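Predict the 3D structure for this chain.
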Amino acid sequence: MIKSMTYLSGKLFILVIFLLSTIGYAEEGAKKFVKPEPVFKQDFDWIKLTSDEWLKGDIVSMYDESLEFDSEELDVQNIDWEDVAELRSKQWQSIRMFDGTVAEGYLVIKDKKLSLTKNGITTYYNLNQLLSVASSSVNERDLWDGYVDLGFNLSNGNTAQIDYTIAAGIQRRSASSRLKADFIADYSRYKDQDTGEKIVTADNEQLTASYDWFFHPKIYFRAADFEYTADKFLNLDYRLNYGIGIGYNVIDNSQTTWDLNIGPSYQKSKFIDVQAADSEIEKSLGLTLGTDFTYEITSDIDYAASYSIQFLNEASGKRIQQFQTGLEIDLLNNFDLDLTFYADRTENPKQASDGSLPEQNDFRLVISLGYDF
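Done. Predicted structure below.
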């Protein structure tokens, strides 16, 4: 009996020693395991997320605490800056710091440190003071992006009607400036089934452009602000508006942006048809107030709203207000669905020679398919 117990005890002792040694080897192996780093090919920019995932592609820009990155496999992605753990650029990038410093070179962000390498010299900057990143002017193509939206309705039979809305825009962003231009055209026509007459119910277009220079993290100078508008049903052959202004960034984070701007303007309008006592061309100095707001509801749905009001003389319209709001819903790749509501008001529209007076208010809801590039 004693001999048997001794034998079993010996077996148990050997088993325990074996298990302990196995666990020790496993722990030692776990300590020695190092996550593999990707091979950094210079054909790509690289980012590492805080989730330890790596993406390769092209850096578009970093602004408003959001990094726009054109992934090789996932297309254009907007990534919260706080989710970026590491970044390496294949070409020169231009950075702008909160104190106004602008510099360029090969960019590396690692271990919460930022460095730029230019002509073999590496300079370090405080990552917490980084305001924006954009491709250097050496890579001019990377500074531009844009969009095209198309809303279209065509019907025939009992109702013969055509409606379309075309919107397009481009934007150039650098570390210290922003150039924007947007165009929208709205047209609607139906055919009277009794007379066969084609009756136009909407025919307008608008082009806006602005150039902003960011000389402070919160304040920018609008060096140029231009608007061209033509609207048959507003009795407006054309309206040209030129202005400058100053803007203030109220909120600027990864989810929300809110800007306010104010500035003087000059407007010239030519009307299609006027009464005998009125002039076809009116000119006026004015004051323009505006605001722009964006909010990221989810990673796939963005909300935007903008409003502006111009104070002019009586003959030029007195007060002209423009409001735009809507949702942009990401679909596949670079395609999105846009739902936009427009509301415009002219306080004192110009009366035609027959005594007719255009409506003060114009409203329209546009559903369109968009493509971002």
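Residues 45-135 form a domain with the SH3 type barrels. fold (CATH 2.30.30).
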